């Protein structure tokens, strides 16, 4: 599924799911802009991609800040080409009882998880419209499908991503742009390991009795970015080991 001559932007590409998606898209031929707040993480992802003989560049900035969005997209356009594949992966999580969620915490969660992807997509779509081709892939969450105790702010922010997917898919379906989202289930990432979850015990309670890997999400991401998925849009494609069955 060649992505030759396509530029892919992956936010949160410095680790975990974003790193795996960036590496896979590069393997499929895309020039990848690895975007992260963590300079060292982004640089390491680029080194991993270049070690395989593929093309990537690191960009450091806030994917939820309008000024950074505009300046970094302009740099990417000049250095790698127009953005034709956008993977909105950057995000945060949180575990707080509903009655203890502060206004500040709610605003931060929504700014990073929902408003950031909204604004970045809005800024990237003109490149896709000019090309008559585009792929927008959001990373949502299975918590948005099931709900989650002590995660009302997180789950609702990701639920907004699922609704945004459907709205943009309808708006741009006739313009050559597909829009889909992947709600990961229980995936073994640095973010998961840093959460107050017993990773191994939770994995044993899942239908497959094991956690997923970042590469599982990357495979779905690469499929949505490919020509094989040209007639698929507006979809929520669960990669969750059976945690959510629809």
Explain what you see.
- The protein has 246 residues and is an alpha/beta fold.
- It has one domain (7-229): NAD(P)-binding Rossmann-like Domain (Rossmann fold, 3-Layer(aba) Sandwich), CATH 3.40.50.
- Helix content is 47%, strand content 14%.
- A 6-stranded parallel beta sheet has the order 3-2-1-4-5-6, sandwiched between helices.
- Strand 2 (31-36), helix 2 and strand 3 (56-60) form a beta-alpha-beta unit.
- Helix 1 packs across helix 9, helix 3 runs parallel beside helix 4 (103-131) and helix 4 (103-131) packs parallel to helix 6.
- The protein starts with 6 loop residues before the first strand and ends in a 21-residue tail after the last helix.
- The mean pLDDT is 94.
Helix-strand layout with pairing:
Layout: E1 7-11, H1 16-27, E2 31-36, H2 39-51, E3 56-60, H3 66-79, E4 83-88, H4 103-131, E5 134-139, H5 143-146, H6 152-172, E6 177-182, H7 190-193, H8 199-205, H9 214-225
Parallel strand pairs: 1-2, 1-4, 2-3, 4-5, 5-6
Helix pairs in contact: 1-2, 1-9, 3-4, 4-6
Please give the number of β-strands: 6
| Tally of individual helices | 9
Unreliable parts: none
Order of helices and strands: EHEHEHEHEHHEHHH
Q: Helical content, roughly?
A: 40-55%
End-to-end Cα distance: 27 Å
The CATH superfamily is NAD(P)-binding Rossmann-like Domain
Kindly provide the radius of gyration, computed on alpha-carbon positions and rounded to a whole number of angstroms.
17 Å
The major β-sheet equals:
6 strands, parallel
CATH architecture: 3-Layer(aba) Sandwich
Question: Overall pLDDT, averaged?
Answer: 94
Shape: globular
Strand order of the largest sheet: 3-2-1-4-5-6
Alpha-beta content class: alpha/beta
Approximate strand percentage: 5-15%
Total count of domains: 1
Main CATH class: Alpha Beta
Oligomer: single chain
Indicate the CATH topology.
Answer: Rossmann fold
